[in-house]
Automatic annotation (TrEMBL):
It comes from Streptomyces misionensis. It comes from the Bacteria. Pfam families: CinA. Residues 5-161 form the CinA C-terminal domain. The lineage of its organism: Bacteria, Bacillati, Actinomycetota, Actinomycetes, Kitasatosporales. This is CinA family protein.
Length: 181
């Protein structure tokens, strides 16, 4: 059985498309998962680990007022991070992760609150006001488990966009078993 990262690299290679990643709580784990796949260099442009809130604005173009008002753990922030890294690194697709892995709450959000986002060449009808698709997760477990589930979830979110509903339905059942919503 292949991994989500392997499937992603294969699909993007076939489509001739590229990917960039913006990470906060995952701290580079998404990029590491993708670059562990042989042939990833054909599709992976790079990543920005914007762990500090001000870097989300400075490097990824996330609205400063939004960050001030909502904090970094917000669905719009995730969407703007994905769009920002896509633009900054010149990729067809942008992925983003932001959230609270613990041990303490952040920006008024409890541990396990995570937002993952994808931005790409979607049809006009499929695009939300944020410029892509954002998914809210409520994860349980240790800091490490929350971070790893965030990696899996953001990769699966893009696979849903690329491969259609079959993969998405399998993932939805798995997320439900793991405490997501």
């Amino acid at each position: 059985m292949s991994s989500p990262a392997t499937d992603l690299v294969r699909l993007l290679t076939v489509r001739g498309e590229t990917l960039a990643v913006a990470e906060s709580l995952t701290g580079g784990l998404v990029a590491a998962e993708i670059t562990a796949v042989p042939g990833a260099s054909k599709v992976f442009r790079g990543s920005v680990t914007a762990y500090a809130t001000e870097l989300k604005h400075r490097l990824l173009g996330v609205d400063a007022t939004l960050l001030e008002r909502q904090g970094a753990v917000d669905p719009q922030v995730a969407g703007q991070m994905a769009a920002g890294v896509r633009k900054a690194l010149g990729a067809d697709w942008g992925l983003a992760t932001t959230g609270v892995a613990g041990p303490d709450p952040q920006d008024g959000q409890p541990v396990g609150t995570v937002f993952v986002a994808v931005d790409g060449p979607l049809t006009v009808a499929a695009r939300s006001a944020g410029g892509g698709k954002v998914e809210a997760l409520r994860l349980n477990g240790s800091r490490t488990e929350i971070r790893m589930e965030s990696v899996r979830s953001v990769l699966a979110l893009l696979l849903e966009q690329l491969a259609g509903e079959q993969y998405g339905n399998e993932r939805a059942q798995d997320t439900e078993r793991n405490g997501g919503f």
